[in-house]
Amino acid sequence: TPDGIITLRAPTEAEAIAMEDKQRATRRPQQEGEQVSGGVFDDGSEELLGCVITPPPAILDGDDGWLEIWPGLVDRMLNEVRRLGGYYQGLTPCVEAVSEAHQAAFGRRALGFEYAGQKLTARRMTRPEYAAFMANRTSTNFWSLVAAVGKTCLLSHQGEEQQALLQGRPYLAMDLGLKILDAAAGVAETTAG
Q1: Which of 106, 112, 128, 151 could cross-link with 97 by S-S, CB 3.0 to 4.6 Å?
Q2: What's phi and psi for 171, nearest 5 deg?
Q3: What are the strands of the beta sheet with 118-123, ordered from one edge?
Q4: What is the tens place of the pLDDT at every residue in 112-156?
Q5: Residue 133 to residue 135: CA distance in whole angstroms
Q6: Which residues contact 86 (CB under 8 A, 6 or more apart)?
Q7: Are 51 and 81 in contact (CB under 8 A)?
Q8: β strands within 44-190, DSSP E
Q9: How far apart are CA 117 and CA 120, in angstroms?
């Protein structure tokens, strides 16, 4: 900003999921032509401000704070927090990521991916899992459910190994879950077998 530098950190997974769910919930009505009235809604700003290292919150969010003077900073800050959290890293298809054991156990249901040089094996959702996802999703919990799908279907990293993989990669479970949902819809990019 003209008044100084904003220093941000990567979000935690909980912050990233909350921000994305809240962003989706507040932007969806606009995309569908609904009028948002009142102007008071939760767009994830609290979680975003939690990722600010400097300056102090009062300088950013006060009545005469930077975000009131330059409201477009929120979008720039959100993009930077996403970048720091690996949002733009990308999860790419990688057939070689599927081990022989996973191939033998899951056949065509095994999916291989690569993320920042890390090979991952996942499985497709079952019909009951997909039905439960569709029945439980709302405009305010989509990304939390997608992240849960990613964690549930990840085969190559379980327990503490999964926690270590996801540590510092708050968008990875969401990215993986989205790829698995694409595969469930017949948009499979990588299959083994």
Answers
A1: 112
A2: -100, -5
A3: 92-93, 110-115, 118-123
A4: 999 988 999 999 999 999 999 999 988 788 999 999 999 999 999
A5: 6
A6: 10, 116, 169, 170, 171, 172
A7: yes
A8: 52-54, 92-93, 110-115, 118-123
A9: 10
